[in-house]
Structure formats: C-alpha cells, structure tokens
Design brief:
about 35% helix, about 10% strand, 4 strands, 6 helices, about 150 residues, alpha+beta, 4-stranded mixed beta sheet
Length: about 150
C-alpha cells in the first residue's frame, strides 16, 4: 500500500529530524526477532549497500511513522521508504525483494493475492511476531553489516 502522502513529504515536516534519504529506508521494530532477521537479510543481500534501517523506537522512526499516519506502538507498523514514497504491509516486503533483486524478485508473486488477503497474512504474522520469533535488540546487534546501515 502506498500511503496518501506525497513523495518526500517528510522533508517538509519539521518534526522529522534530517536524515540521509538517498536510498531505500526500512523502519522496523527494534525489539522484534523477525525484524532483526529481516535487517540481517537486507544487509546480506544488499550488494549495492544502499539500504538504511531505522529502528521504529528511535526519534526518527517514530516521527516518520506518525507522519505517515501510523501508530509506532501498533505491531502492524512497518514502513518502507523508496524514492520518497512510503509503503507498508506485504507490499513493503515485496518492494524490498524487488529492490534487492535476484531470487528475491520472486516475492512479486505475492501480488497475485488480493489486497485483503495480503493484509490479513501480514497482520497475523505482525501481531504474533514476538510469540513466533521472540525478541531481539536491533540497536545492539553484533552484525557489522546491519550496524553500518542503522539510522537513529
């Protein structure tokens, strides 16, 4: 889903700290084991080293979520910015896969699912992510490839 905001609209929002936005940005829960695995997946497959990862609990992450009408405390909140446009839910995952390329282009097949089914699947996983994948601390992760992509 693309949010209703204009591309790069966050640049005109004084509540959002300045940050380098010259590449794709994934805003994800810093306490979620699945999100930590997702950050490692991005870092491992981002051959061009263009992705940045923003912990949702950081000042920047919370400001971006609020700007796009998302609740930073809601487990469904995951935000992906690409070329100034915001995407959420399974659509965000598909777009990350397409950006990474290679075998991850196959995530595109998820688009054959109707939107309501995509959102339902994403919702079940997101609401149960701690139960299914445990907790993690993305901000203190030891993976140097993830660490160098973190923005706060």
């Amino acid at each position: 889903m693309e949010t209703k905001q204009l591309k790069f609209s966050y640049r005109d929002d004084n509540s959002i700290p300045a940050f380098p936005d010259d590449g794709p940005i994934s805003i994800m829960d810093a306490h979620c084991g699945l999100c930590a695995k997702g950050a490692a997946w991005i870092a491992r497959n981002d051959r061009k080293e263009e992705f940045r990862i923003v912990p949702l609990q950081s000042r920047l992450g919370q400001a971006l979520a609020v700007h796009y009408g998302l609740d930073p405390s809601n487990p469904l909140t995951w935000l992906y910015l690409e070329n100034g446009a915001a995407h959420t839910s399974l659509d965000a995952l598909i777009r990350v896969g397409l950006r990474l390329g290679g075998v991850w282009n196959m995530l595109f097949v998820l688009r054959i699912l109707p939107r309501f089914l995509q959102d339902a699947i994403y919702g079940v996983v997101a609401r149960n992510r701690y139960k299914f994948f445990g907790r993690a601390d993305l901000c203190s992760v030891q993976n140097s490839e993830v660490k160098k992509r973190l923005l706060f």
